[in-house]
Amino acid sequence: MEKIIIAAISKNNVIGKDGKIPWHSKEELQHFKKNTMSFPVIMGRKTWEAIAKPLQGRLNVVITHDQSFSTQFHEVIVFQSLQLAFSYFSTSIYTKVFIIGGGEIFSEVIDKVDSLILSEMNFETEGDTFFPEIDGTKWILDSNELYTEFTVHHYIRKQN
Ligand SMILES: NC(=O)c1ccc[n+]([C@@H]2O[C@H](COP(=O)([O-])OP(=O)(O)OC[C@H]3O[C@@H](n4cnc5c(N)ncnc54)[C@H](OP(=O)(O)O)[C@@H]3O)[C@@H](O)[C@H]2O)c1
Predict the structure, then answer these.
(1) pLDDT at 62
(2) Which residues is 9 bridged to in the sheet?
(3) pLDDT tens per residue, the chain (160 residues)?
(4) Hey, which of 76, 129, 130, 131 would you mutate to test ligand 1's pocket, going by the most ligand atoms within 8 Å of its Cβ?
(5) Beta bridge pairs of residue 7
(6) DSSP label at residue 131
(7) What whole-number distance in Å separates Cα of residue 86 and Cα of residue 54?
(8) Which of 128, 125, 118 is nearest to 151 (CA)?
(9) What is each CA distance from 40 to 4, 75, 98, 154, in whole angstroms?
(10) Main-chain dihedrals φ then ψ at residue 83, nearest 5 degrees
């Protein structure tokens, strides 16, 4: 099972502000949807609060320490750690899982995932949540895909 981070990042590394993504790009949302459709999407509890309803056509996975956390939606499952979620999917039918944020979750998984699909937006912006540093000794930039409002950088982990 391939573990993939997918994120949209401003030129100065911002991914969030006041609990939200501080821009709206239909084109980027379409790119996100196209890549993640039909695969599980794993997110931190704060990102879930920001989205507030399940992403359609995907199993939505929320990570929280709160053992009493639940939602009214049948397509949302909850784990108390990332490790528990990864163990669950390692024996599932899914060939890929996407880790979709936010900042705390990205920082915890960047050393554990196989690839990164990063939309670099064409601008800088103010924010309070940032994408972790990409260690050039660990990642190979495999491809760049140019869109109107952003460029998608696809990184794969170096095999040591
Ligand atoms: N630009 C993008 O691509 C993108 C994507 C997603 C989100 N965002 C933005 O990022 C911001 C949210 O990010 P964030 O860093 O504040 O929060 P987050 O990563 O979405 O969620 C953090 C929460 O996840 C839970 N958690 C994290 N690690 C855990 C672990 N190891 N075990 C159990 N639970 C764990 C905790 O929930 P509990 O406190 O309930 O225990 C923690 O408070 C928002 O502004 C959002 O809009 C941007």
Answers:
(1) 98
(2) 120
(3) 999 999 999 999 999 999 999 999 999 999 999 999 999 999 999 999 999 999 999 999 999 999 999 999 999 999 999 999 999 999 999 999 999 999 999 999 999 999 999 999 999 999 999 999 999 999 999 999 999 999 999 999 998 7
(4) 129
(5) 118
(6) P
(7) 20
(8) 118
(9) 11, 10, 6, 19
(10) -60, -40
Q: In terms of residue numbers, what domain contains 29?
A: 2-157
Q: Of 83, 105, 107, 120, which is best to mutate to test ligand 1, by the most ligand atoms within 8 angstroms of its C-beta?
A: 105
Q: ∠34-127-129 over CA atoms, to 5°?
A: 70
Q: Are 3 and 113 in contact (CB under 8 A)?
A: yes
Query: Domains in the chain: how many in total?
Result: 1
Q: Is 55 in the pocket of ligand 1 (CB under 6 A)?
A: no
Q: How many angstroms from the chain centroid is the CA of residue 157?
A: 16
User: Which atom of ligand 1 is least distant from the CA of 79?
Assistant: 33
CATH of the domain at 141: 3.40.430.10
